[in-house]
Amino acid sequence: MSEHDNYEDLTQCGLDDTQEAELLRIQRECTFMWTNKKGEAFGVIMSFLPKDGKFWLTCAERRARVPALRRFPRASICVNSTGTSLGTGKTVTYKGECVIHDSREIKDWFYPEFASHLRPEPEAAKVFQNFLDSPERVVIEFTPDYALSFDSALMWARSPEAATNKNDPRNQS
Q1: CATH of the domain at 105
Q2: How far apart, in whole angstroms, are the C-alpha atoms of residue 26 and residue 158?
Q3: d(Cα 106, Cα 123) in Å, to the nearest integer?
Q4: Which residue range is the domain that position 31 belongs to?
């Protein structure tokens, strides 16, 4: 049995630095995961702003993730290529530390950049920014310390016979 007869070892199927950077540049949403007060994993889809090697997110103070992160600041973020020009099958998951910010100083730079990142048209960004800037909103700073990526195209390239299903009508001419 050769090393490519199964999918036991996929360590050579990660994104390279350029692909990872491109994914973070074009994707706007991630799955943000934390541990709740019962010690259970939980996650939601959130928009994010990548900046200086960190992920910046925002939510209302009353969201369960805020007190959970204050108790235990470790979290995880998963970004995938679904819905982007990269197609499907590219993903990167990070784990790291979170800091919850409610200072005006952070909000003053974050809201405009975040709004413009998600709504490139200036007037739409300004309207979005105004809605974001509410009294009970916080900014989450996520600093990754570990990353695990995957590119399904590399997996399929290792096993071209598995990637081609002769019974699939799309593969028949």
Answers
A1: 2.30.110.10
A2: 27
A3: 22
A4: 17-156
What are the structure tokens assigned to 85, written together?
């020009």
For residue 44, give the amino acid letter. Answer: V
**Position 117 in a domain:** yes
145 compared with 5, residue with greater pLDDT: 145
Cα 50 from chain centre: 9
Q: Are 59 and 138 in contact (CB under 8 A)?
A: yes
| Residue 173, pLDDT above cutoff 60 | no
Confidence at 164, pLDDT banded by 50, 70, 90: low
Q: Residue 74 CB: number of other CB atoms within 10 A? A: 13
* C-alpha separations of 121 from 126, 128, 130, 144 in Å: 9, 11, 14, 30
Residues 6+ apart with CB under 8 A from 159: 4, 7
Q: How far is CA 138 from CA 27, 66, 97, in A?
A: 22, 8, 16
How big is the chain by its Cα radius of gyration, in Å? 19
CA 47 – CA 43 distance, rounded (Å): 13
What's the pTM? 0.84
Distance between CA atoms of residues 18 and 21, nearest Å: 5
